[in-house]
Design a protein that fits this description.
Structural class of chain B: alpha/beta
Order of helices and strands of chain A: EHEEHEHEHEEHEE
Number of strands of chain B: 17
Oligomer: heterodimer
Number of strands of chain A: 9
Largest sheet of chain A: 9 strands, mixed
Largest sheet of chain B: 6 strands, mixed
Strand content of chain B: 5-15%
Shape of chain B: globular
Distance between the termini of chain A: 22 Å
Structural class of chain A: alpha+beta
Radius of gyration of chain A: 18 Å
Strand order of the largest sheet of chain B: 2-1-3-4-5-6
Chain lengths: ~210, ~600
Amino acid sequence: MNNDNSTRIRFTYSKRDRSCFIPHVVIPQIFYRAMRRAGLKPLMSQGFSPRPRITLGPALPVGIVGICEPAEVWFSDLVSDLCELINPCLPPGFMLSESAPVEGPSLNKQCKAASYRIYLRDKSKIQELYELLMQPSRFRDSILECQTDTDSVQLMVADPCSIGPGIIIKYLQENTIIRKWSEIFVVRSMVGGWDGSSILPLVVTEDR
Amino acid sequence: MIENDGEKMNSNNCTKEFDDTLWPLMGDVKRPSRYAGNEWGPVDPKDTDIDLVRVCLAFPDVYEIGMSYVGYQILYPLIKELDFADVERAYCPWVDMEEEMKARGMDLVSIEGKRRLCDFDVVGFTLQYELTYTNILTMLDLGGIPLRSEDRSEDDPIVVAGGPCAMTPEPISPFIDVYCLGDGEEFIPSMLNVIHSMKGMKRQDILVEISRIPGAYVPVLFRNTDHSGHNGPFPKAMVKDLDATFFPEKMIVPSAPVIHDRIPVEVFRGCSRGCRFCQAGMIYRPVRERTPSTVEKLIRKLVAETGWEEIGLVSLASCDYSGLNELLQRLTPFLEENGAKLSLPSLRMDTFSIDMVTNLKVLRTSGLTFAPEAGSQRLRDVINKGVTEENIIESLDAAFKYGWQRVKLYFMMGLPTETEEDLKGICEIADLAFRTGKKYKRRANVNVSVAGFVPKAHTPFQWEDQNSIAELREKGRMLKSSIRNRHISLGYHEPEQTFLEGVFARGDRTLADAIELAWKKGARFDGWSECFNLQRWMDAFDEAGIDPKSFTMGRPVEASLPWEHIDTGVTKAFLMSERHKALGGILTDDCRWSSCNSCGLQNKGCGWVLHE
């Protein structure tokens, strides 16, 4: 329990198919309504225009698939099976995977790394994409790891709150690897902590 | 390490997004959330082998506007509950998406089942606003349906249109197979029943059978000498007991941001105020209310089912709901506990009272909207807007005193008998609002919106002259320049759009050619100022040999009108009498709380008539 008599629960969710085009800014409202349908009542903020206390992790631009995105919600009491309660009440394209109570630093402060997979419709350009990412750029120093196979480039980037996928895609467009949206497909597989060699999940449940 | 996430990736199979044919287009257009769908609600297509009548509810505007329309929230579950039918939706793609779709040869499909519009049995449009007509053509075209009724084959869907503009059907009647006049709750199931039982039979025979249903108007049969008895008048469909009439207990909750993002609950239909400019007030008569206990039950169910945190009480004049106080009393504890809020659109300044306001905690308190409509008592009396100076002062006072920070005020310019004095009155009321707000130390932002008056069919002003584009522009500019206070913002509707609206509002069948021509020239979303182009329309009118001003001009009362074959229940005699009283500045009382004014509905099922 926190000082103000509330329980803070962190959860991870995926954002798939056409729901990827729902703007990040309305996602808290989507979770709030799902919670209401499930009979849950998140705590509300104080002030003139109370809002549900739901915080999201680093923004995911539209059009990018999110597999393990973090978020937090505050309740007055512990809700131990948040995913099982909320999932049947979510609209298509959204699903919770894990949840656990947390304390400590804010969510954004704990988001140290994000892993991506970048697919190109034109597979012959994958090697070129890999080499471009390895060249000096304004975010080169934040690339923690980069690998490639025939289908995609897998990338791990530090500081996801400042360096989002939008910056990377813009860079690719500037260097004419891609011209239009239809040529690329990006998945953010995880946002997590970083221990120097691996990306760490932000939600740790007893099963792990 | 990256390998772990690789496993997750493969098992999650990302190619389904990459293979979605709409995916690349969505990334390249404005506001892609319009095309995302993925709502919460009763949207799954029925999984059955039975031959269902497939209905597509097609809204001729963008998703975020269509999703805010209560009519489809009612009709959708209504049709879903019929065991012989299923329902899906489609919205009009924005101009950029239309272009992308055309470039790739993609058809317009429904959101739920991705079914082409031409593969439905029925495609229904709602005619909410005249400037959406070109969007209907876009949707028919992209959906693979011939634009003209006469060109449709046995395999093509039956194209139906309802909503308020169906009462003036002629401008688009060559494109529509069946009009639903009035209330849809009984008409639609009857019509679908006919289509279901006549499956496989000839299209013409089906249309003849549908034309027998009360509320139907089938243009192709009108005055067609092969089919006697189709000369009209065509009476509207009317549900008598709204309390007993279907209202859904499930609704579609959008994931994408939309204009009105709340549960719409219709508390009553119709209006007895008799404002002379108002078409809705005439065509939706008589007033039919839902009881507070029914509304309460609906709200409780819908809040639990949808999870929406706001409820809008929908009607033509929310404070006129006779059960409002009782409803607020019943609901307040539930809403407080649940954390849901009520919003009351369509307030009237004569019934907005302090009683209502004391239920403050459950009402949204950002801004209030009022519609004084005219700037002087004299002109308000002409239009029979029964709002006095005192009402205005008191309601503004109550609004600010009890915590509202902003007000929005709606007015019209170009009303019959209007003088400069009347227009100046608009600025005076705006100023009064600001001073009242400041008295209570509020932010007192006053937002004034002035619309050019469009005389509407089926109203006492249906014979009036509409102000020209130049006249409206001059008035609008004069009003805008008269506001010196930076806390008051005044905007007016684009007079060119007002002109086009006026052409369609009192138009006839000859306009259809011009609409098709304008559409072919690229006219889309004419209600949106960023898309509107008057020259394109003037070229189309010219090519079609039409003088658009002939429709916005005043006409003599003896003239035959291109909508008089549509019977709203209100008599011509009543409209003429009201017009006569208007010119004399004589008021007509609200017939619910005084005596019957004999509008015509007293013989057609109005439940408010007191028999002496």
